[in-house]
């Protein structure tokens, strides 16, 4: 592919040079990976999400990033998991991996690793060949709108029946993004505020965005 846009070069360098939260795998949990798919259209930046169908085992009808469970027979690593799943779910093949974000736990007993990737500009963003068994439809989300703080809030959600954690919610043109996907999105927006100010303005339209996530994992965290 052609040279990365300057803002993505900065993002890639920062992700590759920074440490990230890596969670140990508790008993009865499995590893998974999702792709945070970035693309640009007429100088505007977008993310791709999917709405899951009623047929899937977990998180039915929810908005999510494409991704899935690590398969030790198919995947050499979690990056391969994310790329395999995004191809299976929405037919995307040409992804430039920029880096990894902090791991998170999910209520469905997964440790999820988010992979940030850039999709080439001639990709079919309508994703007309998506996997209809898993994906109801594909949602194209403008970064400069999803970062609008007026459309963001947090709610206290039970975690393992023992405590409440504050979960980010985003309203994008009536679509509600929350749960694990909301937490990953909030973290990604936080990361974008660490790159050059002109790139922040270009990609998300604001200079400051910061959401503090509840951190309950002190005994399960290492840095890499």
Written overview of the protein:
23% of the residues lie in helices and 35% in strands. With 224 residues, it is α+β, with helices and mostly antiparallel strands. The protein has one domain (6-214): Nucleoside Triphosphate Pyrophosphohydrolase. The strands form three sheets. Strands 2, 3, 4, 5, 6, 7, 8 and 9 form an eight-stranded mixed beta sheet that branches. A three-stranded antiparallel beta sheet has the order 10-11-12. The longest helix is centred in the last third of the chain and has 14 residues, at 179-192.
CATH class call: Alpha Beta
CATH topology: the name is Nucleoside Triphosphate Pyrophosphohydrolase
Name the CATH superfamily classification: Nucleoside Triphosphate Pyrophosphohydrolase
| Low-pLDDT segments, ≥5 res | 216-223
The tally of beta strands, per DSSP, is 13
**Major β-sheet, in short?**
8 strands, mixed
The whole-number mean of residue pLDDT values reads 82
Q: Choose one word for the global shape.
A: globular
Q: So, CATH architecture?
A: Alpha-Beta Complex
- Give the count of helical stretches: 5
Summarize the structure.
The protein is of the alpha+beta class and 224 residues long.
